[in-house]
Amino acid sequence: MTETVGSPAGAAGEPEAGARKGIRVERVYTTEGVHPYDEVKWEHRDVVMTNWRDGSVNFEQRGVEFPEFWSLNSVNIVTSKYFRGAVGSEERESSLKQLIDRVVKTYVAAGVENGYFASDADAEIFEHELTWMLLHQVFSFNSPVWFNVGTASKQQVSACFILSVDDTMESILDWYKEEGLIFKGGSGAGLNLSRIRSSKELLSSGGTASGPVSFMRGADASAGTIKSGGATRRAAKMVVLDVDHPDVEEFIETKSREEHKIRALRDAGFDMDLGGADSNSVQYQNANNSIRVSDEFMRAVESDGDFGLRARTDGSVIETVRSRDIFRKMAKAAWECADPGIQYDDTINDWHTSPETGRIAASNPCSEYMHLDNSSCNLASLNLMKFLNEDLTFDAETFSKAVEFVITAMDISICFADFPTEAIGDTTRKFRQLGIGYANLGALLMATGHAYDSDGGRALAASITSLMTGTAYKRSAEMAGVVGTYEGYARNAEGHQRVMRKHAAANDLVRTYHTNDNAVHKLATKVWQDCLEIGGENGWRNAQASVLAPTGTIGLMMDCDTTGIEPDLALVKFKKLVGGGSMQIVNQTVPRALQALGYQEEQVEAIVEYIAEHGHVIDAPGLRPEHYEVFDCAMGQRSIAPMGHVRMMAAVQPFISGAISKTVNMPEEASVEDVEELYFEGWRLGLKALAIYRDNCKVGQPLSAGKGDKGEQDKAVEKQIEYRPVRKRLPKKRPSQTVSFTVGGAEGYLHAGSYPDDGLGEIFVKLGKQGSTLAGVMDAFSMSISVGLQYGIPLEFYVSKFQNLRFEPAGMTDDPDIRMASSVLDYLFRRLALDYLPYEKRAQLGIFTTEERDAQVNGEPAPAQGGDDVDLDTLRSTVDYQKSEPQDEDKRNAGSSTELLELQLGKAADAPLCMTCGTKMRPSGSCYLCEGCGATSGCS
């Protein structure tokens, strides 16, 4: 608990002379006379991180010291990501104590130096409280703090940056340079290109301007070359364009056109997978794109009115368009490739605390930080599950006190922080933007018996968020009375006070439903009243206080089940074991949720056992159907509807200074109209930004397995028995065909024999001279594939494994349907797919005839397919099967929670593979997170 002493500040940014002022600190977690490190049991562990796919060692450090209650995963990630010093050297950190002390002592020393504390005793208590909270995973600073604070490196504490660019070549080149420096440091940046004149306007020299999209090519190439943090993951960047820019249609379609190119190149045999050898030839893939729409535009869409596109030089209308046509193009492009997202300009600037200084024009790459150009934001997130009591009530009082500690530390960091450019440093020091947030909301809601998509769940989330931001701004006002307001406050005092009143008014509109959310909301109401009163007297220390970030790596550091505002990914998760190996476990929030719903211990055990076996709650013994919704997750048998995610974002947005990093996932069968509805509802519900992702809309993502009927899916998910088929031999006389082919100059023949019902049953490949090693290998390969086909292995399985395989000979072919092949096997199996697989299965594999590709380009329906689909179940029904004991395939084949979920669903998830350790990543806000090593695809 903290309080301030001393008289209020005088001039903005300058404390008055007189008695020593500062914050008085009271203990919350710690005990006087006992250091936090002495309260826990420590143990030494060996950290050896391997690539899950090939077993190679990515990182090794033995004998590191951590509390015994820290999980293997959190120990691995902190050791490999955050310990400083060369591995194997004496300077290398080897204990969590060293890491926490390095950061906390730097913060406290800066706080003392800058007059934050009333006495040395208060500084010591503050140090112990921060140490205890970090030690017990109550909160975490963002990654740059752990990377840089207390080291010989520059003391960069911010993860999120916003740049600016003007309509001059000098400014554009500065943009390239500044963005590159930020990427090199491992952070992300965003900017708005709308000041650059359009390709429809003239230059002073008399020529025509290039337009912003042309300059995006250079920035995209730079980001693809530098990558992020000098590592293998792509740079994180955001590019924004206003909807009234004359080049808006070209901007909208940049990435969707490239997606069409990707599909054409893939079909021609190029390796276009994420990170594939040929994928770097595609443009604009290193940025997230967003359109900044105005209320005027959205009202025009609502009324089907026209809208004017304006010149950048004088603001005159140079073209009038139908607003719904632009809106439809936005939705269609997002439906095709997930870009562009949408940002609601008037809503953003209506909640802007510093409007007199300038408008908010852009955001960071993940869309949660929105403030002035050339500024930055440092983040920290609290672990909400740490405030859940044994009786399943939320400890609002302790949560509020924790927020006070964290926001104070975050503000102190700006006193000593370094920044990548002078302009960013100047703006950040003048406005002191902070981004406190939280993780584990999805786990908290489930544990307290709330469905994520429910009025009760939204009420609790809104109340907690309101309390967090209210407490942060209250503490900011108290700090203003000690060390002064932010420098830009005097000019923006009226605007800042107006936004504070808007937050408090929104809090008054929250409707509560249960004892839990009512208690939190009651405290939030009091905090906002105090905030307005203290701020009216002192002003505020920070122009911005809160955001909801993805909390990727730091979420794993805190052992969180869910990140940011996200719901649970699934009810079962993948857990690494200290002695090596892994196991599948049911999320620990599930039994707590069942207890909250009133189930007895025996019922809880039975339901948990059922979930462990099936991966879902449908038909779980004793579980009432009305409680199914509590266990709905982001993926799985019962996934949360897209609008459910939007409604949750809308519930908490009025209590966030910035915005929310989150991508709303949509099913593959969603329509363009569904995207339009989400974008329109996002505006109507008061969101600041919204991004969507439709399953399988990108080529560079894994494809779904065949859908099949519900019965087949249930069999794939449950895996109750394992079958051992016997061979179904071909009859003596069977239909066959022979195809001659040429790949990269190498000539050969493919002979394919079929069952009478048209199912492929054998292949023979002649390649190379008789008696040569190559000919012998191809004969053996052909026999192996033929036997596999006769044992019931589906042809599409072979096709998925061998297409895009790369080795010589490779290159041009003489086949009009497959013009390029990356190897002989790539050609052979794509040819077999075209000859023997139905259109639906080939579409999932991305294999089409020339006629079919032409139809896609022209927007025509797929050409009629000859022949009937091979019914593999009917084929297998003619084969004798022998039952055996169930085998634990999930444990052997899964490398992450996402892959485990794929095995249960019988369907691939849209997520990239981690470039570091090879496991499949999972969604985290608008980014992806690797559970194995903590790597992210964004700026967290």
Automatic annotation (TrEMBL):
**What Gene Ontology molecular-function terms does this entry list?**
ribonucleoside-diphosphate reductase activity, thioredoxin disulfide as acceptor
Gene3D superfamilies listed in its UniProt record: 3.20.70.20
Stated EC number for the protein is: 1.17.4.1
Chain ranges of the TSCPD domain: 731-835
**Transmembrane stretches, start-end:** none
Please list the residue ranges annotated as the Ribonucleotide reductase class II vitamin B12-dependent N-terminal domain: 47-137
Function as written in the Swiss-Prot or TrEMBL entry: Catalyzes the reduction of ribonucleotides to deoxyribonucleotides. May function to provide a pool of deoxyribonucleotide precursors for DNA repair during oxygen limitation and/or for immediate growth after restoration of oxygen.
Read off the NCBIfam families from this record. Answer: NrdJ_Z, PRK06556.1
Q: What is this protein called?
A: Vitamin B12-dependent ribonucleotide reductase
